[in-house]
Structures are given as structure tokens and as C-alpha cells.
Amino acid sequence: MLKNDLLLRAAKGQETERVPVWLMRQAGRVLPEYRATRAKAKNFIEFVKSPELACEVTVQPVDSLGVDAAIIFSDILVIPEAMGLPYQMIEAKGPWFENTVKNKTDVEKLRIAQADDLNYVLEAIQLTKKELNNRVPLIGFAGAPWTIFAYMIEGSGSKTFSKAKQFLYTQPELAHQLLEKITQSTINYLQAQVKAGADLIQLFDSWAGVLSEKMFYEFSLKYMSKICDALQPLVPVTVFAKDAHYALEKIAETHCNTIGLDWTISPKNARQLAPNKTLQGNADPCLLYADEKKIISETQEMLRTFGKHRYICNLGHGLYPDLDKEKVKLFVNVVKEFK
Amino acid sequence: MLKNDLLLRAAKGQETERVPVWLMRQAGRVLPEYRATRAKAKNFIEFVKSPELACEVTVQPVDSLGVDAAIIFSDILVIPEAMGLPYQMIEAKGPWFENTVKNKTDVEKLRIAQADDLNYVLEAIQLTKKELNNRVPLIGFAGAPWTIFAYMIEGSGSKTFSKAKQFLYTQPELAHQLLEKITQSTINYLQAQVKAGADLIQLFDSWAGVLSEKMFYEFSLKYMSKICDALQPLVPVTVFAKDAHYALEKIAETHCNTIGLDWTISPKNARQLAPNKTLQGNADPCLLYADEKKIISETQEMLRTFGKHRYICNLGHGLYPDLDKEKVKLFVNVVKEFK
Predict the structure, then answer these.
(1) pLDDT higher than 90, residue B91
(2) Are strands B94-97 and B87-90 parallel, antiparallel or unpaired?
(3) pLDDT at B329 > cutoff 90
(4) pLDDT in the model for residue A170
(5) Rounded Cα–Cα distance for residues B244 and A209 (Å)
(6) Which residues of B touch A264 (CB under 8 A)?
(7) Does B310 participate in catalysis according to the annotation?
(8) What residue numbers bound the domain in which A312 lies?
(9) What is the CATH number of the domain that holds A32?
(10) Among candidates B257, B187, B258, which has minimal Cα distance to B223?
(11) What predicted TM-score, i.e. pTM, was given to this entire model?
């Protein structure tokens, strides 16, 4: 059905004519057309909750950057909200929760999110699938349970997430109860995304890097692994645990298909540690500040190092808002023209 | 001369009766007596510039925590200031520079700092040496050139340091000129610290982790290596490049004596990658939020994994201000009693 299924074939370990490419945060402020659509909504939450606007910005980078996949525009924090913990997105600051989780009562008060609670995302997926008209696959996503947990405890972003980690060290059993609830909510949500049309699912563990190896296995990977199991064999799953350089071998033992890499990981090491998985990444977003010559040479070097098989090209993190759209396009084209 | 020279012997690779222990940010807000001394100064800069107050807080943890070394109380940003780029420390926000470095003229305007420019630190070291009366060694320190550069370009802390990295990608030659100036300033400064009495020097590369492996070698390690060379054979040198997990083998090729590790690095891997160096670290500061039983068992496990030889116990990052002093003391005592 799909005219361009490079992403799905690469994720499944099948041969592809060329390396597929998409970009984290491609539906974002780097595109002038995104900023125009964003201006139609009163605030970020209203924007996320509008299936029409979400669909519009999801499709934009497929048209204007020529990427090989769309990723549904949404936010990882829709899960805490659906569980009973609403948030605001404060300009230039990031997410902020009026209430946070502190104790057993707080955990017990939270409900397990059901697909219905997130109908606006499911509608956005359905609309987008129609709009894409099978040009490229649509990626669905969710935050990893640990990352969601971290925001629910901390109440905002943090350099250290020391409150969230304090919770793990002082109330490990309660932490597991909450992580279990988040995991169940996320499974309900992602299974519904697949039913609505998502062709591949990515889990974002944005704050994996603040955990030690041991803590990551106990409080993060265990739950991501459950989610991978719950989505198999429906769709391929990508696990992106940012800065969890220590965990590649163990991530490769889960039932994910693809492992996302940040730019501190060497492609060669990753291939050795996860030979059975597709790899995704991992250019430094700041490379796209460089001149054209450097963007071309560094991107080609990265492509040669990863090799064409079992590889999905991307950055090692989301696009920064102040990057030049033309340079982003150049990056995409270098990948598409690579032989 | 020194009554307790465990730290220096461990750094030099000599046998020690027991593992030495000190803590990054031990002269800090975790101690009530620090907060009392801090209140005597109008602001942070005045505090840093007072040799008497700096001496007072440097000695406090030796008395009250029983650590095996003092580290001179100061700030890594005294170097930009001495080069002509003053900063403020804004409560709950961190450092802030009114002027930042943007172009060639800005780089040329900066002077190479001389020992005299930092007399207040040298005086603090002399005072502290007297006050310590040879009880334990005194550690001197500086920021790594890349980390200093990052603040000079960015003008404040940052999650991504994307402006500083943009500078590396777009003006690499100018970046090297500035890094060279910072390196010369730092060498002048550290050689003077040694002359004033510092027994060991630690370089803090706090923002190593935002760089890719290749960029780290080109823009950070090269300059830290120069500083190591300039301090040999005067005193042992410790390189702590936070989150530069990818670089252990190359750091081990410099003339440093000790490699500092954050808590995401496994002691076993570090031993394999840097068999010729002393290792320092690497408990998660958040462990000290846990109950006593857990602090004891996890600390003992870490000690067993590192082994008693060529090891200096520490955290993997600075103490967090809201930790309980008694638990910090417990950690120190567990190390000191370890057989």
C-alpha cells in the first residue's frame, strides 16, 4: 500500500535501495510553515489537542523537507494529563505541572489512561493517514515510562531530576507501582495509535541519561521492554534512550526493532553491541549550523560508518528551532543521494 | 610532611592502607557552616574573592566530614573574568555574562590571564595550607578550556550549549585561538596554584558530554592534555570530563594521573579502558538521599568493584545542596572503614 516503505523495511531488517531519513522534531519551529500553523492556536495545549492543526504540521515536513516518514505531532506529556495530572507549556521554560506526585495517595489517585482519553491524538493520526495518502509511513510515539515518571515527580524539566531520582532511592516500591500504571496507560495509548494507523512506534526516554546503569535496568528498561512486547508483532518499535550509552547491549535484548542513538555513541561500537537491531541516528544537531561543505562531508562519513543495511538516518536529538531550513533540507538530500 | 597523604599516593599509583575519599562540592551548601560563612559576603563574587572566607569554607569539610583532602573553594569562571569577561552568579539561575565572545575582535580583546590577576585565589591557597597544617592535601582546580569556552560564548548555563557548539562548527580556527588563550591562562593560573601550595590539580570539563567524540578530541582533550603536560612532574593531575564516556581510552593516553568518572560509567569498563590510571568516583549523588542501609550496601559494592588499588572514592558529580550532612558523613565513614 505505502509508496515509500523504506523506513519500515529498514526497521524490519530488510534490504533497502537507499537509507531512509527522517528527523526528530521535524514537525517543529525550524519550519516557517509550522510557526504559521502554531499561531492559529491560543496556546501549546490547545495546539496539541487540535487534530486538524496536529495533522497539518505533521504533513508539512514530508512536503517541504522530503523526509521518508511523518511523525505525528503531539507531546509525550499527554499521558500524565490523561492519567489525571495536567500540565502547561510555558514559553521558553518548558512544561510545568501544578500538582506533582509525592506519596502513595497521589499514586493511587492517578487513573490508568484509556484510548478514549486520548481521542484527539487518535483522530489526528486518522486525519494524517488520509492526508498522507500512503506517500510515507506515519510514526506514532510515547515517552518512556521513566521519563514520564520523572516529569510527574519533578513537575518540570530539571538538570539533574534529583527529586525523581530521590523518589526511586527512597520509595522504590511506590515508584514501581507508578511506573506500572504509566506503562499500562502507555500500552493502551500506543495500541490505539496503531489501530488508528501508526505504522511504527518510537519510545522516547529523554532522561535515561541521568540514571546509573543499574537504575536504568530496574526503573526504565524493564518497562520499555513490556511496551515493546505489547506492540509485537503489530508494528516495528524503536527505543531511543538518550545518553544511555551503557545500555546498548541490554536494549538489544528487548523486542524492539530499532535502537535510536545520540551523537556521543560511535556507530561502530553500536553495531558491535547491537548486531541484531536496526540503528537510527545520530548526527549532532549542531552540525546543521556548519557550512554546506562540512554538512555534506560529515553526513557522508556518518553514512559510510553506519553502512546502508539496517540503518535509518536521523539526528542524535531533535532539530533546534534556530536551524536554517535549507540546511536541514541539504542534510536530507545528502542522505537520499548517498550510494 | 603531610600527616595524611593517602590521596597523593593513590593518585601516583602507590599502595595505600585504605581508599582515600573526598567529595566534589564538599565546601558547599550541604554544610550548615558553609551557609553561615556564605552569609558574611554580599554576593557570590565577593565571597569567591575573599581569601579569608574561601579558606574558612575550604577547611570546614575536613573538620566536619573527615574527608582525606580539601579542595580550594573557588569558581571555574574566575578565568574568564581574569581574561576580561566578568560574570555574575544569579541566585537559583547560575552564572551570567553581560558580554560574550562572538567574533575575532572579541577574541583578540581578551588578555591571557597571569598569576597576579588571580592573587585572591593564591592567597586563599596559602591561608588554607597554613590552616590545614599538613593534616590533608589541598586540591587546586580549574575548568577545562572547552567548558570555559562554552560559558564565554553562551554567556550562561545551557541544556545544549548550542551557541558554543555552533561556534566550533562555523569558526573552528577562531575557536582554536580562543581555546589556546584560555589554555595559556589556565596553565599560568594552575602553575601559580601549585607554587602557592596546591598538592594536586583537578580539571573539570563539566560540559564535555555535549560534544561528539571527534569534537571532544579536537576542541577539548587536546587542551586538557597540554595542561597536564605543563603540570608534570610538579603535582598529580586529575581529569574529570563529565559524560565523556566515549573518551576514556584517549584520556588515559594523556599525562594525567587520575581519571574522574561520573555514575554512568561502569568501574569495570573504566578499569579495562584505562588500566594505567587511578580512577576517581563515581557514586550517584542521589544515593545519599536513600536510607542508611542502602547507602552502606551500595557504597560497599562500589568499593569492591573498583578495588583498593589506584582508587580515590568520590561521587560522580558534586553534592546536591539539599542532601543531609549526616548521610554525607555516613558515606565518608563507610569508605574509611572499608577493608
Answers:
(1) no
(2) antiparallel
(3) yes
(4) 97
(5) 12
(6) 209, 211-213, 243, 245-246
(7) no
(8) 6-337
(9) 3.20.20.210
(10) B187
(11) 0.97
